[in-house]
Amino acid sequence: MYTSDQDILNLIESQIRNVPDFPKTGIQFKDITPLLGNAETLRQTSRLLAKPFSTEEVDVVIGLESRGFLFGTQIAMELNAGFVPVRKPNKLPYHKIQATYELEYGTDMVEMHSDAIKPGDRVVIHDDLIATGGTSAAATELVEKLGGKVVGYSFIIELAFLNGRNKLLKHAPIHTLITY
Question: Most buried in the list 90, 91, 170, 176, measured by CB within 10 Å?
Answer without folding.
Answer: 176
